[in-house]
Design a protein that fits this description.
This is Universal stress protein YxiE. It holds the Pfam family Usp. This protein is of the alpha/beta class. Helices cover 48% and strands 20% of the residues. Helix 2 links the parallel strand 2 and strand 3.
Length: 143
């Protein structure tokens, strides 16, 4: 049904659910699976007493953790017989996911949800909500 699908990898807690869904959808098909992780490009230094190099170190550690998650996810899919490519992007997660999906003509996006509701979602935003509202292809949100 889907020839090209991307899986947005972010939180370790929900990654297994995302990958299980991916395996079920892509199993025994010639589906091209792309695992995507988006890292923040910068962190605003609103606190004058925090050294700038400290923030850069945090971003580097976050990027390193994201790359490790991508490799773990790729290994899990490969053990289930599914080949996947990995892509690491930088910037606003919703924006980057939507642009990548559009530019590569993805037919399905699988993404996790943190389960924010009400005021928290309004204040913090929800990547999965933005992606589901603005995507040109179907979006499967895993809780």
């Amino acid at each position: 049904m889907f020839d090209k699908m991307m899986v947005a990898i972010d939180q370790a807690e929900i990654m297994n659910k995302l990958l299980d869904a991916t395996v079920e959808i892509a199993r025994n098909k010639q589906t091209q699976v792309t695992l995507v992780h988006v890292s923040q490009e910068y962190v605003s230094n609103g606190m004058t007493y925090v050294p700038e190099n400290f923030l850069e170190e945090i971003l580097n550690e976050m990027e390193k953790a994201g790359l490790e998650q991508l490799q773990q996810a790729k290994s899990k899919l490969e053990s289930a017989g599914i080949n996947a490519e990995t892509v690491h992007l930088k910037g606003d997660p919703a924006h980057e996911i939507l642009n990548y999906a559009r530019d590569t003509e993805q037919q399905l996006i699988i993404i996790g949800s943190r389960g924010l509701r009400g005021i928290k979602e309004m204040m913090l935003g929800s990547v999965s909500h933005k992606v589901s509202q603005l995507s040109k292809c179907p979006v499967l949100i895993m809780h």
